[in-house]
Amino acid sequence: MGEGKSSVIAPLVAAALADGSRLVRVVVTKPQFKQMAQMPISKLGGLVNRPIYYLPFSRDLSLDKVAVKILDEMLRECMANRGILLVQPEHILSFKLMDPEC
Question: How far apart (Å, rounded) are the C-alpha atoms in residues 64 and 26?
Fold first, then answer.
């Protein structure tokens, strides 16, 4: 604890990996989300000019072809802009569970 994993190491690794050829996700738990949402914006957004994207996803959403296309465009934009996607584990699970339904 207190070694700087969330404030130093995670933003550094995310910035290094976000080179435009891959989508970089930083997965944070719900209790850490507020802290991790503010810190990358100040560190990555301000210092190295990297955009931070959020993907709050729920199974309550109804996805049609237009919504899927918009989601795809957002993720491709994140990758092209060398951005970092900030997500919670439950959002990833909801996204995976929507696949068979759609």
Answer: 27
